């Protein structure tokens, strides 16, 4: 059950990043920090992203009450794998080969951490 909660926390975190990327794509590049930051806070996708990240943090607290930090925290790196895949297939980003190698190394690390 704890691993399921951890996975839900990771998924919500990834969704939060995706929604914020969509929101900031609508805002455009930030040039005037004061105006742009305030404006970007009220873009619906950014609000949804913040809600997902808040939900992720809440579930993370539950996970920490049940799991060793030395196991739980490294497993959060699975989010990096999911964000990279989402970036490739949803946003059509070009991912260079060295980044794919990094993702592979992260996945190997996840396997090693769970083998303890």
Your description of this structure?
- The protein has one domain (2-114).
- The chain has 6 helices and no strands.
- It has helices at residues 2-27, 33-41, 44-66, 69-75, 78-89, 97-114.
- Helix 1 (2-27) packs antiparallel against helix 3 (44-66) and helix 1 (2-27) crosses helix 5 (78-89).
Short structural description:
By secondary structure, this protein is mainly alpha-helical.
Keywords, please?
single chain; 116 residues; mainly alpha; 6 helices; 82% helix; 0% strand; flat
Biggest sheet statistics: none
Total tally of structural domains = 1
Tell me the series of helices and strands, N- to C-terminal: HHHHHH
The number of distinct helices, counting runs of at least 4 residues, comes to 6
Q: What Rg, in angstroms, do the CA atoms define?
A: 16 Å
Q: State the end-to-end CA separation.
A: 19 Å
Low-confidence stretches: none
Shape assignment? flat
Q: By helix and strand content, what is the structural category?
A: mainly alpha
Number of strands: 0
Q: Bin the strand percentage.
A: under 5%
Mean of residue pLDDT values: 94
Tell me the helix content: over 70%
